[in-house]
Amino acid sequence: MKIVPLDPRRARTRKLATLSRKVMRNQVASTVQAGSSIRDFFDSLPEVLAASDLRELARRIARAHRAGKPFLMLSGAHPIKVGLGPLICDLIRDGIVSAIAANGAAIIHDFELAFAGRTSEEVGEGLADGSFGMARETGEFLNRAAKLAATEGKGLGEVVGREIQENGLRFRDTSIFATAYRQNTPATVHVTIGADIIHMHPAADGSAIGQASMNDFHRLASVIGGLSNGVVLNLGSAVVMPEVFLKALNLARNLGSKVRNFTAADMDFIRHYRPRMNVLERPTGNGGRAIALTGHHEIMFPLLAAAVREELAER
User: Fold this and answer.
1) Which DSSP string do the residues of 155-173 spell out, in sequence order?
2) Secondary structure class of 191 (helix, strand, coil)
3) Which class does domain 50-313 fall in?
4) Strand, coil or helix: what is 197?
5) Contact status, residue 160 vs residue 189, Cβ threshold 8 Å
6) Cα separation of 183 and 98, whole Å?
7) pTM
8) Which of these, 115, 187, 120, lies nearest to 149 by C-alpha position?
9) Paired strand residues for 99
């Protein structure tokens, strides 16, 4: 087939002033001088894409806090492992985070940091000889907490926090679950049986773990029932918490809660299908705002926490 090249000499052009543009000069970044404040830093960011979304999320969290609306955090274990516990504790203490829900691995890192001040093992090394995940104190403490929660009819998150606090663990002040317990902030744990290292231990009782986690599922559904005009943030959970959130939201709506017009946000170092669909898109399909921020937790979450503080400082 013979190709006849198009001749651009007859192409029509238009004056720039008559054409729309998405980025304006007043949206671009400004410079920051040495010794500037964190407020100066945020003000210097371009009002474009993720920088704009970060500030928008901070504004929405601050607005929800001022209005007495909930800010629910969903968390994987990785944010705790990379050292964000003290920041989350601080937000809980100040009533900014009004509830936190996490997967089963989160309590492992939270306990080990509170008990020993260290966590996160080299999986490959331990896997070679079967020692991976077999820390005695971790298994005994958390499996005992599951049994207590099941027996008492309480949630796993509450009892883990209580036991960390009442047993006087050395670094309990930076334990998320102990802080939530002290502040009477709902903290729930949602376990996938067989996925966490403590399930390999002699003390593991599947019935107790399941009952304690089911108790927490019902507590989370109650929290979500009041989420209208609030904010939910999924921080670093690719599968478990997005799935749990979707079902808990549906249960709350099924039982009569009109959960509408909330902000749903996802922060992770890559974008995943389930957070996008089950936290951002489906839940806000009938009203609300969805925000996705991509980047390393240990950088992005401190930025968000600082931005929220700055928003709340403005009156």
Assistant:
1) -HHHHHHHHHHHTT-TTGG
2) coil
3) alpha beta
4) helix
5) yes
6) 10
7) 0.92
8) 187
9) 72
- In the chain, domain spans: 50-313
Secondary structure (3-state) at 234:
strand
Q: Hey, what amino acid is at 156?
A: L
Cα(10)–Cα(225) distance, integer angstroms: 61
| Residue-level pLDDT at 232 | 99
Q: What separation in angstroms does the CA of 88 have from each of 77, 91, 108?
A: 13, 5, 16
Q: For residues 73 and 103, is the Cβ–Cβ distance under 8 A? A: no
Measured distance CA(16)–CA(67) in Å, rounded: 44
Residues 6+ apart with CB under 8 A from 35: none
Residues 111, 138 contacting (CB under 8 angstroms): yes
Q: How confident is the model at residue 315, as a pLDDT?
A: 64
Task: Report the C-alpha gap between 99 and 84 in whole angstroms.
Answer: 16
- Contact predicate 75/297, CB 8 Å: no
What is the distance in angstroms between the CA of the first residue and the CA of the last residue of the chain?
A: 70
* Spans in the chain with pLDDT lower than 50: none
**75 neighbors 235 (Cβ within 8 angstroms):** yes
Provide the pLDDT for residue 134. 85
Over the stretch 242-283, which tens digit does the pLDDT of each residue have? 999 999 999 999 999 999 999 999 999 989 999 999 999 999
- b/e per residue 218-235 (b: at least 16 CB within 10 A): ebbbbbbbbbbbbbbbbb
Residues whose CB falls within 8 Å of the CB of residue 287, separated by 6 or more in sequence, listed in order: 260, 261
Share of the chain above pLDDT 70, in %: 100
Please answer whether residues 225 and 160 qualify as being in contact, where contact means their C-beta atoms are separated by less than 8 angstroms.
Answer: no
